[in-house]
Amino acid sequence: MKIVVDTNVFLGACLGTGAAAAVIAACLNGRCLPLTGNALFNEYEDVFSRKELFKRCKLTQAERIELMDIFFACCQWTRVYYSWRPNLPDEADNHLVELAVAGGADYIVTRDLRHLRNMELLFPQLHIVAPETFLKEI
């Protein structure tokens, strides 16, 4: 099963949020195949450079970098050739849908359900779910 993991889920995993951590663990142990591409990779890099987000994090910066490296080693690199615009109210989230469609993902796992569920374009095979819902599916 292919999935796109939004950066807010990975951030939650680093901060010790149970469901988010379980989603990342499912990726690392091969229960699902996470997709990544240029835009998502760059977003991860940007989020992980913001030290203020990790004030409550139990992982050191070196441990977070190692976890991210291991996670990306599990990912399938996916090239996005087509933009599906306009689509989402928040332009910054369109790349998640484009990656999911390009890679044939079954799910986008995110905490930002409100924005991602309000697509103008419909992709019936693509499910937008919170980490807790995704864990029930697998």
Q: What gap, in angstroms, lies between the N and C termini?
A: 9 Å
How is the largest sheet built, in terms of strand order? 3-2-1-4-5
Number of strands: 5
Series of secondary-structure elements, N-terminal to C-terminal = EHHEHHEHEHEH
Radius of gyration: 14 Å
- Percent of residues in β-strands: 5-15%
Question: Approximately how much helix is present in the residues?
Answer: 40-55%
Number of domains: 1
Class by SSE composition: alpha/beta
Globally, the shape reads globular
Low-pLDDT parts are: none
CATH topology call: Rossmann fold
CATH homologous superfamily assignment: 5'-nuclease
Give a description of the structure.
This protein is of the alpha/beta class and 138 residues long. The chain has a single domain (2-137), classed as Rossmann fold (3-Layer(aba) Sandwich). 47% of the residues lie in helices and 12% in strands. The protein contains seven helices and five strands, in the order βααβααβαβαβα. It has helices at residues 7-14, 18-28, 38-48, 61-74, 94-103, 113-116, 131-137, and strands spanning 2-5, 33-36, 76-77, 107-109, 127-129. It has a five-stranded parallel beta sheet, sandwiched between helices. The chain is globular, with a radius of gyration of 14 Å.
Task: Please give a quick description of this structure.
The protein has 138 residues and is of the alpha/beta class.
Q: Which features characterize this protein?
A:
single chain; globular; 7 helices; 5 strands; 138 residues; Rossmann fold; five-stranded parallel beta sheet; alpha/beta
